[in-house]
Amino acid sequence: MKKVKIGTRGSQLALYQANAVAGYLRSAFPDLETEIVKIKTTGDKVLDSPLSKIGDKGLFTREIERALLDNEIDCAVHSLKDLPTELPEGLRIIAFSEREDVRDALIAQDGMRLLELPKGSTVATGSLRRRSQLMHLRSDLNLVDIRGNLNTRLRKLEEEGYAGMLLAYAGIKRLGMADKVTEILAPEKMLPAVGQGIIAVEARENNTVMKDLLSGYNIVASETAALAERAFLRELEGGCQVPIGVFTSVAGAKIEGMVGSLDGETLVRDSVTLDSTDPERAGRELALRLLSLGADGILAEIRRDAPGAQRP
Predict the structure, then answer these.
(1) Cα distance between residue 2 and residue 70, in whole Å
(2) Cβ distance 269 to 256 under 8 Å?
(3) Torsion angle (degrees, nearest 10) of CA 87, 90, 96, 101
(4) How far apart are CA 75 and CA 96, in angstroms?
(5) Which of 82, 140, 275, 278 is catalytic?
(6) Domains 1-97+198-218 and 104-185 share a fold
(7) What is the CATH number of domain 1-97+198-218?
(8) Residue 179 a catalytic site member
(9) Domain 104-185 carries which CATH code?
(10) What is the pLDDT tens value at each position of the chain, 312 positions in all?
(11) Which fold is adopted by the domain 219-307?
């Protein structure tokens, strides 16, 4: 293979991630040429609705995966948290990057921290997971939905006069804007999304050359955490329409997860021991434990009220 075509979304963060993979390939294989192919996804086109209202299966990946299956690109680079747990037939994840900081971050006016925000303050977030946990911590806040890339969100923060907004710290850090963060929220306060902070490279199952090229890019600890967290989500049959958070500490041999109601009033949280030789088992075990603790009722209610749900 003389040239690798890398498919990606066209946002600043997506291009950063794709270029990180391209940079690795050029460094490891100096004779290899790389080309970044920008592909617009459904999630990029529909910006006037919350993610939870427009469905959650492959919003940011479907068109890229189609290009992959049609041999228009050789591999695809995604934020792992955007990838559904069930991939299209014929595709697989061939590499998991080193994990960036998994935590969520608050960017607030006047440099305030979460507990310092005045009662009734308006905070923006595009995630039901963050909304649920934030309402559990601060039910006195007014939460609004926000979409768009980081620069768009920062502009809206100023223009709309929001007190603050919550988003993944990994993206802020990768784009060199960490100085804008006023508080980084520990997983004890706010469990991250499945795979948050990990860049995933997807390719066709039969493309063994691509897998060999990226074998040195794959980080075993990231892969272990990803397998555990994706098994957890798969068992719960969750997505962006459901407030689900999880964090795997490979070094600490633990995976911790939560399922919350949309209003944050009810939140079920627990942890189990992680065996790195079978991370998916730990993910499934944690999911079943949360279901037995009441997550089944929370999920049933959310799905019953979800857009498009059939009514009796």
Answers:
(1) 19
(2) yes
(3) -20
(4) 13
(5) 82
(6) yes
(7) 3.40.190.10
(8) no
(9) 3.40.190.10
(10) 799 999 999 999 999 999 999 999 999 999 999 999 999 887 666 555 555 554 555 777 899 999 999 999 999 999 999 899 999 999 999 999 999 999 999 999 889 999 999 999 999 998 999 999 999 999 999 999 987 888 888 888 889 989 999 999 999 999 999 999 999 999 999 999 999 999 999 999 999 999 999 999 999 999 999 999 999 999 998 666 789 999 999 999 999 999 999 999 999 999 999 999 999 999 999 999 999 999 999 999 988 876 554 333
(11) Double Stranded RNA Binding Domain (3.30.160)
If you ran DSSP here, which 8-state letter would residue 260 be given? Answer: E
Count, residues in the chain: 312
pTM above 0.70, yes or no: yes
Tokens 């802020």 found at: 172
**What residue segments make up the domains of the chain, in order of their start?**
1-97+198-218, 104-185, 219-307
Distance from C-alpha of 243 to C-alpha of 260, rounded to nearest angstrom: 5
